[in-house]
Amino acid sequence: MTWWNTSKRCNSLCELRGTMGVASIIALLPVIVFCNSIAHGETPGDTVAPFVYTEWETFYAEEGGLPNDHIFALRADGEKLWVGTENGLALFDGKDWKSWTEDDGLPWRVVSAIAVSKKTGDVWLGLFGGGLARFSGGRFDHFNQFNSGLVNDVVYGVAVLDDTVWVATTAGMNALNTVTGEWEIYTEKNAPMEEIWCYSVDAADGKVYAAVWGGGILEWDTATRRWNAHRDPDREMEIDLYRDDGLIHIITTSASYVDGVLWASTYFGLSRYDGRHWRGWMDHDSGLASNFINYTVGRSATSVYNATDLGLAVLVDFVTDTWVSYRRDAEDAETWTAHLWTGPDETTTVATDLDLPNHFIIATEIQGDDVWIGTGHGLARGRGTGYYNGVHPPSEKVEAEGSEP
Amino acid sequence: MARRWLPLLLAVTTIPGSAVSMERVYVGASVCRECHNTDQRNQYATWLGSPHAQAWAVLAMPESLEIARLSGIHEDPFSNPVCLGCHTTAADTEDWERDASFHLADGVQCELCHGPGSEYISPEIMADPERAAAAGLRTPTATTCLICHKEKGSHTAVLGPRPFNLEKAMARITHPGRGGQIDDAPSQASSGESDNPFVGARVCAPCHEGTDGAYLFSGWRMTGHADAWSVLGGDRAREIAAAQGLAETPLRAETCLRCHSTGHGEVGREASFDPTLGVQCESCHGPGGAHAADATGISPPVRPDRRVCESCHTPGIHSSSSVFDFESALSRVDHSRPTLAHAVATEIPYKTPFNLVVSPDGKRLFVACEASDSLVVVDTVAREVVAEIAVGHLPHGVCLSPSGDLAYVSNRGSDTVSVIDTSNITLAADIVVGDEPHGLTTNESGDTLYVANAGSYDVSVVDLTTGRETKRLSAARGAWDVARSADGSKVLVTNNLSHFVPFRSPSRSEVTVIGTERSVIRDRAVINEANLLQGIATAPSGEYSLVTLIRTKSLVPMTRVMQGWVMTNGIGILWTDGRVDQLLLDEPENYFADPTDVVITPDGKFAFISGGGIDAVAMVDLEEMISLLEAADPMDRTTLFPNHMGLATEYTERIRVGANPRGLAISPDGRFVYVAEALADTIGVIDVESRERVAAIDLGGPRGITLGRTGEKIFHSAEVTFGGQFSCHSCHPDGGIDGITYDIEPDGIGINPVDNRSLRGILDTAPFKWTGKNPTIGRQCGPRLAVFFTRIDPFTPDQVVALERYIQTIPRNPNRFRTGETLTPAQRRGKLLFEREFSNSGDVLAADQRCITCHSGPYFTNREMTSVGTASPLDTHDVFDVPHLTNIYESAPYLHDGRAETLEEIWTRFNPDDKHGVTNDMTKDQLNDLVEYLKTL
Question: Which of B928, B931, B935, B936 to mutate to test the interface with A (most CBs of A within 10 A)?
Fold first, then answer.
């Protein structure tokens, strides 16, 4: 456990550090640990016991549901799950599958991003090399760089906020006002975009966040209609000189904005921003399975799910810095193992029944208590039976270290 | 002069490709006058005495209103950009592009011909022709004049033929002269103090203009008094001056100015006073400073003292006449004679009922009347009108709240829904919705309103507790009418135009299904080979819905008309299990043109469908119809029945009604069907049991039938086509488009395909058709139409005249992308691109490479034939009529054969060689901006 990250309250030590000096803080360390324990209702000696997804079900194209095993995008919409694959779109309603390929009117085979409009229920699809599509009432409407104001057909991400559809493309961002039909383009010409390769976009609560590969995170405020850029202040590409000074790296892959907190994934670690403070994680000193994060989805301000090249890394609880990372421990391992971490220390492992052949996770999504992960070789759902937030089961005592919760 | 626009210009000068043109603003003729008002250079006086200077003022003439109507303009010509585009200067600019010294009321001024002058007005620049040209000074050519002076059908129809002779016109307005010392401008600075100074006509104008001001300012501007100063610049004035021994120019001579200008020599003239405006208001009505300061206080005398007139109009002063006839002279300058204001007040419109709804108790009808912009209330027992209330422009649809206490009226010309309190027939609210709202309905509980927007292709979902639109749901092209399912769980929406389909493919039209629980799209039912889906009704059983449709045969030349080879007319049956059937209402050689609306009796036994083109209502025995379908072979049902004209008599019979039946409503007890007889201004009453029209309720429209009304009836009647198969309306609903590309001419199958074009506001865009073959609408509707559509009995000459008159008056919709004068930043950037003279790399664009060259004037067409590289192997020629761009956003697809589904595609796909303007150097955001601007035209 890194003492300066034991609690939100103790994060203020980051500020103190600047004023008091390290030596003073070390002198206060016992007090700090005690305060942390009191803050979380623990008594010294208690262990944390996050929920672990041990029960999984897998889905493969050969079984007849998915059109393809190479999963690019996942999007939950209530009881439904939309799946974007290399060769088609699929919908799972909890029981049955339905899919669409180009033969069924899907404008382009590769579905790289999915968003659902809360207002209209329309499903917006990013098509990798094919532009954008709206899927509504069984009809596909195709928008590409020739027939619309879409800046480029290589679409990486899509998000919907009120009446506006935001599109992350390889040549900048688009905003489509679905009421007026106006397309706005944002590139380095009119946004603080050092690169225009936009990898992902998320939007909620009046904010839009674009993950720009090589350009950090761009934040758009719908009220002020202004962009703000978040980049790694130390500007180092090879190392993170000062942790928590800002975004951990500018090669960002996705952003997730939930409960007023921005989660940003990069190829060099994970960042969290609450509007005032940044926090970064890397794989060598936390439960993050790998710095190479393809996608991130925040469940809340204190919990986030990360699709990495070495498995699913879940920060279960930001306050206690508790992680659960799921991966295949060996190539010939039959199933995946969940590794529990608190801070930089692995505390225990738990067996699961997940048997996807590959733990290079491309997409992940939260659906209620369940979690979905998509890889290049299939899709899996972790059943959240008995799921609980945080690090303690609701009504059970914390088990002794090493035993299953 | 004020340079308040400077910051904005500086902000936009970084946009590449158009830097030079962006710096120029209009300064106004009064600034040009500072130099061009001397003996050597008296261009200003020459211009002031020319008709150009009165061009704006003449819009106040009552003839202007008629001309506007014939241009499809149903608003004040002074506020319409099409009229102003030729009758003033800089009409298409924003406020910041016009300096404070610029006045629209000065009509066609220097800068219309010579370009905005802010950058070339300095004497140093003007002295160097090259520098002046680089700064924007243009030398007009014949083309410049012809942008406005090409013959316009609307003007010819009202003012008579006035052939434009360019040479004579140039001789009349030419204003040579250069060199010499620049004199001081006539003093117009305030001269001394006074409690009641002269302020000048421009100060009078804001209050004494427009409808409220009886257009007095314009009236004065058209009199000889307004020219009084400018005539001093002419040869006659110089002769008179010389004869009187005056050495100086009459334009400066005190002797002349005393009578030829107001307030000359008087003490007390405000800085606003402009002596060059001649004998102004204050010459007759006295100094106006005190009145201008407090209009409710001192009022100047209306009728001038004759001694004032006689002080200048001394007999024999400039003529041989010995008598000054005061009364006669007064009548010549009287500017209270009939003007536009009077013309507006004397219009008496028809009603043209479109749609109607019955109150839950069956006692009242609420009728949306398009032509009178009103909702008429009818007592169904007394069968007479009991109330009428003004609503928005061009009301189309009407529905009631579940309790009947509120009526909702869609106004397709205002983009609003009027909410009427039915207890006292008062306007409760107006709700802003999408473009061209048509059909509407509430949900079962009455807290949500669904409005089909034909122009924006979507459905407005309105929360009736707040009176605000909460979301838009994507429908299909031309969302037209709506109906609620029997169980209230769904709202179904018909869409008038087909989806875009691959070239030379049959139509595919859609009925959009909305789930009312969450107000989201649930499904989209597709009806193949059909278009113009309009009316819709749901069966009480909930098993199916009926829609009206037309099956247009657009893929083969119109060489055959028999057996439905142009179009057939029928209904679609949409089953809740997803099946779709189609049946015709046509009989052999007895078609059912323009099926428009459908209602189903409460017992579910019969449906009634209005046939707008044949003045009849079809009564369909639904049990027979369903039996027929269920007994059919599945293959026959899907492939044969939709085209079978021998079936209709098995389940339909026709009931004759009044002219152009449109909307239908059925009484709650199912006894009566009420028919909106649009072009009879009546509501027909059909007795369901006797199957007869038993009454016609007069809505109180004018008794006389005008020429235009006659033409409107012809337009909507299928009488002249073989078997009554179709009418003009069939391809041009609401005077617009059906969104289909046609192969009309018998020049080979698939050869010379042409996209259907709108008829809204087209008179002054001649020639007509993509080939430009028809110089007038009359030629198109007469001989040309006879070749393909009418064959045996073409329209008579009188019918052609009437038809032409009606088509001329079909209004253009207000442009929803342009509210007021101000453009959005994207639109503004787009306008600069549209008018640009340089490419992004700084190369000069040749004239024929610029958008503005071909797409010039207030209609954005030079009305010439041009090649833009769009001819395909299917075309036998490569020059096409330059289309007008007004309301271009509503007429997709584009190009002569409709190959471009969107505006973007015109250039992204179909301009590889920059023959349709230079566009390949544009970045994507520039193209987006250009499209945003085009949508505002």
Answer: B928
Write the CB contacts of A70 (distance below 8 Å, at least 6 apart in sequence).
A85, A86, A87, A376, A377
Q: Point out the residue among B456, B474, B932 whose CB comes nearest to the CB of A122.
A: B474
Interchain pair A148, B932: CB under 8 A: no
A139: contact with B, CB 8 A cutoff? yes
Contact B297/B279 with Cβ under 8 angstroms?
A: no
What are the start-end ranges of the E strands in A117-238? 123-127, 131-136, 139-143, 155-161, 164-169, 172-177, 183-186, 198-204, 207-212, 216-221, 226-230
Render pLDDT for B367-409 as a digit per residue (tens, 0 to 9).
999 999 999 999 999 999 999 999 999 999 999 999 999 999 9
Say yes or no for a CB contact (<8 Å) between A134 and B474: yes
pLDDT tier for residue B274 given thresholds of 50, 70 and 90:
confident
- Tell whether pTM > 0.80: yes
What are B574's two structure tokens? 């949409």
Q: Letter for the amino acid at A65?
A: G
Exposed e or buried b per residue across B335-357, where buried means at least 16 C-beta atoms within 10 angstroms of its C-beta: beeebbbebeeeeeebbbbbbbb
Strand order across the B437-442 sheet? B437-442, B448-453, B458-463, B468-474
- Orientation angle between helical segments B924-934 and B825-834, nearest 10 degrees: 90
The mean pLDDT value of chain B amounts to 89
Cα atoms in the Cβ-side hemisphere of radius 13 Å centred on B13: 10
B890: contact with A, CB 8 A cutoff: no
Query: Beta-carbon neighbour count of residue B575 at 10 Å?
Result: 14
Going by pLDDT thresholds of 50, 70 and 90, the confidence category of residue A62 is very high
Q: How much is the average pLDDT of A252-266?
A: 97
The verdict on B432 touching A (C-beta cutoff 8 Å) is no
Beta strands in B627-691 (DSSP E): 652-656, 661-666, 672-677, 682-687
Tokens 């500018």 sit on residue: A250
What tens digit of pLDDT does each residue of B482-533 get? 999 999 999 999 999 999 998 778 999 999 999 999 999 999 999 999 999 9
Q: What is the value of ipTM here, to two decimals?
A: 0.89
Flag if B905 and A120 touch (Cβ within 8 Å): no
Cβ within 8 Å, pair B523-A137: yes
Q: What pLDDT does B566 receive?
A: 87
Tokens 């640009």 belong to residue = B836
Report the C-alpha gap between B22 and B12 in whole angstroms: 8
| Rounded CA separation A129/A149 (Å) | 15
Q: Count how many Cα atoms sit within 13 Å of the Cα of residue B150 in the half-sphere of its side chain.
A: 19
Angle among Cα A25, A31, A35 to the nearest 5 degrees reads 115
Q: Judge: B474–A148 Cβ closer than 8 Å, yes or no.
A: no
Q: B43: which DSSP letter?
A: H
Residue B471: closest C-alpha in chain A: A119
Torsion of CA B522, B527, B531, B533, to 10 degrees: -50
Element (H, E) at B755: strand B754-755
Q: Could you tell me if B392 and B411 are in contact, meaning their C-beta atoms sit under 8 angstroms apart? A: yes
Determine how many CB atoms are found less than 10 A away from the CB of residue A94: 10
